[in-house]
Amino acid sequence: MEEVNRLPAGMRRFNELDLARPFFLRFCGASSAIVLGFFFLAWFVFSVTNSPLVALFSLLPSLPLVWWLYQSTSLLHVPLAVDLNHPFMDGDPMGKSVVMIQMVDGSWIDLGNGRVRLAEDDLLDGCNLVRDNDDYTHIGHFSRHPMTHRGIKKQVVILNQALALRDAVNGEEDTIEEARRRERLNTGLLDRSWMEEETEIEIDPDGIISKFRGE
User: Which of 9, 32, 67, 109 is in the most buried spot, having the most CB atoms within 10 Å?
Assistant: First the structure.
C-alpha cells in the first residue's frame, strides 16, 4: 500500500462533510453548557467576594475542560477521507470511489479492498488496523489508544460503513450486510457514552445507495 504525506486532490476529510456536522454541533452544545455553567459560577463568586480577579479565576477552568472534551470526543477526529464519487458526498458518483485512512504518523493510505478491524500492537502503544480476513493482514499503526477504547471502535464502524458504500459504487454491492454483521460481532456498539450514542454514529448505507440508484 502506497503511503502519502498529504491527501490527493479531490479527497475530503470525513469531518469536513455535511454528514459529520451533527457530531460537531453536539460538541458545540456541550461546550456552551460548560462555559455557561462556569459563567454562573463566576457570577456567584463575584457576588460573594466582590472580587473580579477571584471571579475570573473561577471561570478559567472551563477552557481546559472544553479542550479536553474536544480531544476526547473521537467522532470529531475520524481519520477518514473519501473522494467525490463516494456516497458520503452530496453529488452523484461519476466513477470509481476511493477511501483513505490516516495513520498515527500522519501518513495517508488507500484502504483498498476488504473490511478492516483492530488488532493489538505488541511493540508500540495502541492498536493496529488490519484486514478483516483469515490472515489479518497488517495495514498500519492506527491509534495510540488500546483496541478496547470505545471511541476507536466507533471510528472503525464508520470506516467499514465507508468501505461498504465505496464497494457499492464500485460494483460490489453484496458487502454491506456482511460489514454490518462484522460490526455487530467485533465492535461492541452497545457500549454508549453521553456524547456518542449508537444512533449518533449509525449511517444508513441503504438510504444513501438508493439515492444514487434512483430508487
Answer: 109
Longest dimension (CA), the chain: 69
15 within domain boundaries: no
Question: Do 50 and 150 fall within a single domain?
Answer: no
Q: Is 124 exposed, middle or buried, given 0-12, 13-18 or 19+ CB atoms closer than 10 A?
A: exposed
How many residues does the structure list for the chain? 215
| Domain containing residue 65 | 21-72
Is pTM beyond 0.70? Reply is: yes
Distance of CA 199 to the CA centre of its chain: 14
Strand order in the sheet with 108-110: 3-4, 108-110, 99-102, 80-82, 12-13
In angstroms, the Cα distances linking 210 to 21, 89, 173 are 22, 14, 11
**Does residue 16 belong to any structural domain of this protein?**
no
Predicted confidence (pLDDT) per residue in 9-39, tens digit: 889 999 999 888 899 999 999 999 999 999 9
Check the CA dihedral 21-195-177-113 and report its sign. positive
